[in-house]
Amino acid sequence: MLRIKYEPIKHKKMKTFIETIKKKLQAWHENRAARLEEARRSRLDAEARKVVQVMEFNGELYVSVHGVPLFDKDAICGDFAVTVNGAREIYKKWKEEKLWESGTTHGSTRC
Questions:
Q1: Phi/psi zone of residue 4: left (φ > 0), alpha (ψ -120 to 50 degrees), beta?
Q2: Cβ 90 vs Cβ 51: under 8 Å
């Protein structure tokens, strides 16, 4: 009968090796998740910049969404650029909520 001799030193080395691999995989997974989230936010930001803009209509400046003028600069109290950026943030939040509802958080889709 063959007897296997138990060597605690090798067992400890194997455990350390496995723990090291687990830590590296966890770090890779967290970094990948962060990269995907940053890419998603970047796409959403680009879409908001494309969709929510300032346009001229009948000689007046308007904030528009998809080329449709919504409100003019007289309807805004304060800085026009700040308001447009605020509108973009609201659009991004709305779009993100729609993406979560549809189960599509990895890319932009038309709602």
A1: beta
A2: no
CA distance 80 to 70: 13
Q: pLDDT tens digits, residue range 35-53?
A: 999 999 999 999 988 988 8
Q: Output the six-digit token pair for 36.
A: 């995907």
Q: How much is the pTM?
A: 0.59
Q: What are the residues facing 57 on neighbouring strands?
A: 60
**What percentage of the chain's residues is helix, strand, coil (to nearest 5)?**
65, 15, 20
Report the C-alpha gap between 88 and 37 in whole angstroms: 19
Report angle CA 71, 50, 68 to the nearest 5 degrees. Answer: 35
